[in-house]
Every structure is written in C-alpha cells, then in structure tokens.
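Extended Data, panel c. Modelled sequence:
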Amino acid sequence: MLQIKTFVFNPWGENTYLIYDNTGETVIIDCGCFMEQEEKELLDFIEKNNLKISYLLNTHLHIDHILGNHLIKRHFGIAPLAHENDEFLIDQALSYANQLGIALGNDPPYPAQYIDERSKLTCKNFEIKIFHIPGHTPGHLVYYIPNEKVLFTGDVLFNMSIGRTDLIYGNYEVLMRGIFQKLLVLPDDTKVFPGHGEPTTIGFERSNNPFLKHFNIN
C-alpha cells in the first residue's frame, strides 16, 4: 500500500507530495520547499524513512511548484520531469521572483526530459498514468495511480474550485473540457490531491464543485 506524505511549503501554501511504498521507492510531486527550515524538514523525512527517490515530477512549472527542485537535484542528482510546453516558465522564474522581492539563490533546474501522455512512469509496485490538461498552463500534467485510485491534480482541480485561467496563456474552455473528459470519468472514490488546499474526491467534486456545475460540456 502506498503512503502519501504532504508538506505545505513556501509563501503560496503549495502542497509537495512524497509517494512511497514499503520498499522505500519514492516519487516526489511538485517540490516547493523554499525556506531553509522547509528544506531541512523534507530532507530529514527522506533520511528518517530511508526513502529512495525514483522520480521528481512537476504538474506544471509555476514558481511555487518548482522552488525545491534544485535541492533534490543537488542532494540526489535527480532532475525534474515536466511537459515541454511549460519550459518558458522556468525562463521567467528568476525575473518573477525578483519582482516579488524573493531571492531564489539558485536558478530552477530544467527538466531532465520532457514527458507527456505517451510517457511511461513505472515503479516496482505501481505505475503512474499521465493526463495532459492545459488551461492553467500550456503544459500542465495530472498524475494518476490507477491501482490506488489517487490523483495529483496540481492547479487544475481543487477542493470546490478549479485552476486560474486569467493568465495570458490561460484558457478556461480548454481547462474545463480537460477536467470533464479526463478526470470526471474516473471512479467517484478516486482521491484528489491538489496543488493547494485539502484533498477531496472525484465524486464530491462532480456533485458539489460550483465551477463544474455551471459548465456545459456539450
């Protein structure tokens, strides 16, 4: 059975996830640690539980989701995997941080390789399926572990909300169609772990999310 550890990091309250099994094999999704204490908290947990990182995955490359990527690359030699369409956001990260008065210290590393829905992410005891759902960012990915019925949605789908689409590259129609066509077809008891806020389920969001009630998929 998989264990899922959630850390809430950085000024944006971003959710960083560690997924691991009884062998210690671990996948990190959206490593957002920023402050020294946050980095220590993450590294201490990895060391204490003797975890071995197989993948560092990004749902998308907004700054709050990539702040800790350099830490994982520096300590474990593992660079992130992400969709190519979000590469431009890494180029903008340093200037965006400066505008906010945040000193990054290290430029975020570029992905080791680019992945999409055709990519195979295989661990010893589980596989990760990839959904490409743009609209919040052009290269946004959602990660699904079918045998565990868990879904990591980044900034696509939240508890009672959806991702922002008001940015210059955002697209509300595209985001909503992706949610309806790729996520809401999953079993009701699929647990949703979003990029911010509390977990939820597909069934709860299908029935209660106000943003989904007011969109006509036809």
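The domain at 3-213 is CATH 3.60.15.10 (Metallo-beta-lactamase; Chain A). This feature is highlighted in the accompanying rendering.
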